[in-house]
Specification:
alpha/beta, single chain, six-stranded parallel sheet, 396 residues, 57% helix, 13 helices
Length: 396
Amino acid sequence: MRQHKWRTGRILGIVMAAAMLGGIATPICVVAEESEAVEMQDGEMQDSDALDLETQDPVTQELEGQDVEIQDDGILEYVALGDSISNGYSADPKSEIISYPQLIAHDLEEMAGEDVELSKDTKNGLTTTKLNSVILKRKQVQESLQKADFVTVTIGANDLMNQFKKVAKEILNNNTKFSTANQALAALQDGIKANPLLLVKVVSAISNWDYTSFEDDWKLTMENIDSMRPANSEMIVTTIYNPVESMELPGTLNSIVEGLISKMNDIIVSYADDYDYKVVELLDSGIGEKVQSDGLHPNQEGQQLICDLMEETATSEPFEAIREYREEQEREKQEALEAAKRQKEQEEAEKKALEEKKERRKTVVSCASLAVAVGLMALLRKKTEKEERNKQSGKK
């Protein structure tokens, strides 16, 4: 089990602060690094991303077999790796999506009181193969992983998407270059409507996808990440949700897609112990209902959902602090609600008492008025009787 260094870092910070008592503390700046997000089509990297792997190999070799001691400077190093989901892709160019790594970094700063350096090495269209063969070959990424306290990985969806596009192109036998899986599936739907027999070919092609290649890519990628990050770091990966859940696919095809995703997720979960990572399950998380207009990418609610699931899954000290902060906020909220409830009940009781007092006053006034009326009537009656007696006496 990996041991985490945050508690040690805080203790060292206290010792250093005590040693510097009487001096002036210099604030630590929070740095956020974000890799340039370059759109990729068909799972291929842009030409500008093609690295000379021979020139990168010495860096990789230099890292291998070394137990590098990283000095704890009090900054929490967070490395986010992955595709367009962790990149915060927005289907609407006019609308910004705040990615879950940014949300997590914000919570670590605001709720846990950490100084965070976010290295966001994410790209739209990234596949597991390209994460391993290109992103992890970069010296900057390797250096970030070497000092990482916390690592998140979201990858695999484009492996599936590219398979859809490949199948569509082969089955439909045309030269169309589908830029998205949605286009490919829409074309397949149209083709199946025109020729229902195509469904058999599509199902066969998708169901016969080679899981072994994905498993090999996943193992190699996780092995490389695990070999670069410190032994006391924490890593969380996400499973794959159904990216075509919102599409009306033929029943059989939809079952095949869900089965395919389940098998990929089984692979992701099965290596958690081997490479010491925790898993956030997205397939049944409800995120399929929190997607953008493209029906694929998480909207802001979806990104927040992933953030929340990540923070609930993480066990290291800063995330315990986030949970404690939220629990305290929830307690304060409940206390405020209870106080408001008591205040309302008190106000209602006072209002009721005032109304009862008014009613009693009305009753008293009514009784008094009635008594006065009765008294006046009695006096009037006596006066009348007296006058009658005087009349009778006068007659005599």
